[in-house]
Amino acid sequence: MNLEKALEQFDIVEANLRRLEKVWLEMRSIIPEGIFFLEGSPEGQRYQELSQAYQAIMKGLPPIGSYQIKSEPWELNTIAQARLDAREIDELGAILSVEEGVDAPSREIGEYRFRLNQARRELVREHLVRLMGEIDTLLMTMTARIPSDRQPVTDEGWSKLVNALAQVERLAGSQVPRKGRWQELRRHLAWGQGQDLHDIASLDWPSVRSDIEANLYSELEPLPVEVENLGSLVQSKPSGPVTTKLKWDAISAEDFERLLFNIIADASDYTNPKWLMHTNAPDRGRDISAERVTSDTLSGTKNQRVIIQAKHWQSKSVGVQEVSEAVSQVALWEPPRVHVLVIATSGRFTSDAVAWIEKHNDAGRQPHIEMWPDSHLELLLAQRPHLIAEFNLR
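Now predict its structure.
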């Protein structure tokens, strides 16, 4: 199944879930708080009609993995009788059990909603990251050659930009809240003049991009925990050496890039982290752009643009050729000027590469190059154990 067909199925399920939520919300409003036998009344008849609709719509919600909505709403007289029986028993447990049964559809619908959003994020994530890289490249190259004027944009890249942004809208769906300049972006795309292109590049797209990046991954999804009680773990007085080496081979190249992005996003002296992508790169690897903020009491605050290039290499070290190519690729991301190039690897650098970088930096050439080998990354991650756990590196 292609991506469009997959999205269509998700859209249909989303529509069905919204209908089920609406039906259940009305049904829940009809259920009385106390003990009332309402079947045969106008409210009871409406409830029965909604109950039949609920059962029909449930069939349009396929399983998500192993999870599926199974609970059906209780009939009104069944609810009243169960409450009456629990009241006669006069046990809190029985009373709570009845209310939990009555409200079971609420819990299952909420769980299904959570899993649906999670599955859709996973479906579109890589496609969104790729499109963001393509849009970054298009805007950078087009604004460099097209003036900010009132002339219609006739550049061949314009149609590519419009198409890429339309795909972003489609993939974002309802999972990405439109807090940023989405409306302004659509308006500038419709007008299509040189000044609109520059407004998109400087104002609209950074705002829209921020919305997308904030919703690529959810922090509401738990990591698995193997211990039931942390207090018991402490009392067991565990002993032995601790692991210092990380399992770099346990993650993919994509995970390594995402790990670096998380490290940058977690650092207090880095701002505005972004994914970048060389659309013509043979490995389609993504670079990361960020602003490094430094300050002192005399000179004030200074921002430096930093590009972080990821090389998840376990079988070989980063050599002179790779470093030289990385430096030449920096031009793809200018303007604005790149002050620092960070080459981050899960492996190491050859001695020749280290010497080349030191000579480059000593001569004052731009950009300044920093090496982040596995030992440096392990030091950074030691201060961020939550990322080690999230990426299962130990």
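Residues 251 and 391 are 7 Å apart (CA to CA).
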